[in-house]
Design brief:
This protein is mostly beta strands and 125 residues long. It has one domain: GroES chaperonin (10 Kd Chaperonin, Protein Cpn10, Chain O, Roll). It contains 1 helix and 7 strands; from the N terminus they run βββββββα. A 7-stranded mixed sheet has the order 1-5-6-2-3-4-7. β5 and β6 form a beta hairpin.
Length: 125
């Protein structure tokens, strides 16, 4: 585990006790991007390298249900969206993101193949 004192840009948070307000989403931020196996996500050149991958931890009460976003979804969110960077001792890096800055939900079949170790490569390849 990384020492939170060495992360000056991250504010501490207890994800188990905190809850997002309004349209905010707590996302467990992955350290590197992984590509999708078994499917393709086409991103325009202007977005290549400008997204992060993470897992939804909690949703604010005002996130519209029509988007179908739920806890546990693996998502892509914008790198330059002005999200807040937090640090939880158990979960690690947490991003607090507005729901409209999440631009893709990664399908479950792709996520399970990556976790099974069937491959890992870069979005920009």
């Amino acid at each position: 585990m990384i020492d939170s004192a060495r992360l000056p840009d991250y504010a501490p948070i207890d994800i188990e006790r905190a809850r997002p307000i309004g349209t905010k989403v707590y996302v467990k931020w992955e350290l590197k991007n992984r590509n999708l196996l078994g499917g393709k996500l086409i991103l325009p050149d202007s977005h290549r390298g400008q997204q992060y991958t993470g897992t939804v931890m909690k949703l604010g009460l005002d996130v519209p249900m029509k988007y179908g976003l739920k806890d546990g979804d693996r998502v892509l969110f914008e790198q330059f969206s002005g999200f807040e960077k937090m640090w939880d001792e158990k979960s690690g890096r947490i991003a607090i993101v507005e729901y409209f800055n999440i631009f893709a939900v990664i399908p479950e079949r792709c996520t399970s193949r990556i976790e099974a170790g069937e491959g890992e490569y870069n979005y920009d390849a």
